[in-house]
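TEACHING EXERCISE
Course module: macromolecular assemblies
Task: Read the component lines below, then compare them to the predicted structure of the full complex.
Student: A.B.
Group: 4
Components provided:
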Amino acid sequence: MRNFADLLDRLVLTPSRNGKIRLLTDHFKAVPDPDRGYALAALTGGLDFPAVKPAMLRTLIGERMDEVLFAYSYDYVGDLAETISLVWPTTLEEETPPPLSEIVQTLSRLGRAEAPSVMAGLLDRLDPAARFALIKLATGGLRIGVSARLAKQALARFGDRDISEIEELWHGLEPPYETLFAWLEGKTQKPVSTAKALFRPVMLAHPVGDGELSKLDPADYVAEWKWDGIRVQAVCEDGVKRLYSRTGDDISGAFPDLLSSFEAEMTLDGELLVGKPDLRTGTFSDLQQRLNRKTVSKKMLGEYPVFLRCYDLLQAEGEDLRALPFIQRRAALQERISGLSQDRFDLSPLVDFTSWEDLDAKRRAPPHPVIEGVMLKRRDSSYVPGRPKGPWFKWKRDPFIIDAVLLYAQRGHGKRSSYYSDYTFGVWTGPEDAPELVPVGKAYFGFTDEELKQIDKYVRDNTIERFGPVRSVRAERDRGLVLEIAFEGLNRSTRHKSGVAMRFPRISRLRWDKPAAEADRLETLTSMLDS
Amino acid sequence: MLPEISPDKSDFRCLKNDLSSYLMKPQNLLQPRPAGLYCPPGDFYIDPVRPVERALITHGHADHARAGHGQVLATKQTLDIMALRYGTNFARSRQAISYGETLTLDGVGVSFHPAGHVLGSAQIAVEKSGLRIVASGDYKRHPDQTCAAFEPVRCDVFITEATFGLPVFVHPDPSQEIRRLTASLMQFPERAHILGAYSLGKAQRVIKLLRIAGYNTPILIHGALEKLCRYYEGQGIDLGELEPATVEKDLADRAAGRVIVAPPSVFGERWTRRFADPLNVFVSGWMRIRQRAKQRGVELPLILSDHADWNELIATIRETEAGEVWVTHGREEAIVRWCELNGIKARPLNLVGYEDEAE
Ligand SMILES: [Zn+2]
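Instructor-supplied answer key:
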């Protein structure tokens, strides 16, 4: 348990991705089975202990210490689990605390009635860091900035394997993942899964680089629209149905409307969108209403129905089609899609083109606002996991660009902790003769290391006020730093004073040459909302 | 070993919980004033926060030891540290007192006793007409190889600090914290480990703890620590090999995998950029609280303090056998509450000018 508690405490304070991966791989190396497998399960959300509730812990501590002293403590710390872990009276704290596996087994057998006494018994045996880990584990509150994807990347690094191999296996495995670790350590063959409706790692495209198309023959490629939803995989095998995100997270629970009308043995690759295929394709902000939910209300289902716009067919009637050329898979998809519910599934249309110039023109003027560009797929390309170079390209619509003025700068994390590297910027609003700047977004990438140094110096030299790690910077009509901001799209937002929220904003250029007064006005942004 | 205060021990025991029977009322012997804790019969202040004629100083931290007083009475080491910080003319006259020695100032007996906080730190016992008050200054009970260990002094009124006066603050074993640092040095050998540690006391203690743990590599120190580290070494505290962290040419490897000790104020400052991918390690009792570590961008918090934790505070209050406790700088309300629950009279002193962050 001590290893696991230390791991949690380090992960939560380590900002860099590589640092986190190092901590995880070292943990997998240092800790034996089954403890490392349970740690992996805890981090990837694979454990659930319904018997332990925060209110019960609150009662337990109330029986053990003065309520007033507890109230002072809780008030100071702010987090209930952390407070209890710190003030729990130490009685039997052990030199060698019980291993994580023992704790997981105890918790998983726990009934509501015996939960208080068992939890108290465990807390008595642990040190404060381990008590914190136990409470977070038992109450399901392990929010420590480690995604399932990151854990899988660490596994890939640990076993020197490609992540797609891990993603493909993942849903057929159970904690404590002993067969997975044995394979990653080269001790056994790759585990064979008998589970149904597994995720098949997704094939991704490279962006079209400068001058790249001139080397390619348009006749070798087909083009299709790139829709602005989320890329998903829908699987149905022997009646088992699953919907996976691009990275293999099981998101079935949030989309019962789609899965309940999925009646065919197949694996589809497509774009999840809101609306009705033949009537209306909703925007990304519509889709956002349905994302990141564990369950979904009837009202949601009615107002924001989802459908799948299909790109590819990976499996049909148990037959793996991934090795076939794209055009054959596409033909099979076209043939079978008519058997699916017309309300929930349609085919993403191909785009006819004669030359790259012709396609470029179509890309710039798409027939629908929810199109964000075109995809190019080699006619003979098989479906290969990952991002192979050559067979598939994405050719996005050009980003939106505005000029904004730097308002606030915040210190970065990790490598950037001595730099002001996170920038809030604004545009002009109000009357022409007395305009004010209103914040419209935040960006923390897009610039070079050299540019970062220049902005950092500018921030330090032009600070008006400091609030902890944040500095406000001089921003007036005749004095201010203009940043050219590129972004992918714009949503209406009630949470922001400006009424708009940018998608993927980044700094595309520093406009040292441009007077702040000439930065864009809010009207420029709001007009983009309607486009 | 408890210094005796009353010629008749049994007499003292039956009287100690009833201060009203003394001729001297405690608040007439020591009382809070805007400039600090004042003793009217002795006409002196303890750790005054503004210039006064006569000052008794518990230890060299800047919020307790200020420059500009008339006469200063302190331990030799505290006087030395003040001279290092403020120059030799930090007061008109200076007088050294040894631990255990008693002086009489206008009829008030004054003695200094080890506080275990930093080198030279003392509790000050003030006694008149059979009434003894101990002003502990800052203190701790955890072992510390860089200063004399705290000695409990039996008294009628104990004035305690309360920097970590909440049950959430229980400092772990220092060697366990040092192990976490040495583990990180091995796990991240390409990163410079910057230890933020207060320049008087904490810096030397953490260096000493590393040496005790067998870490023999030269340690880089920030310029602000140099004089004090040299002073500690002159006092017989071996800190091993120290190198200045300010000389560029010595940092060919940009101190990857090395330990650099600096004041915590360097975190996030340009000074850190000379080092290889700095990893911020904050050495402080505050690091017990995760949010505190997170706010400051600390990647490796080491919970190590020169102040008493909750358990040390309440154990010390009991050991002094004081019938009354005055609580100052920190979380007074929780200590006052604990005293009430345990039948000890207690009140907050509400002294101002002592820093919460004086770690
Ligand atoms: Zn101090």
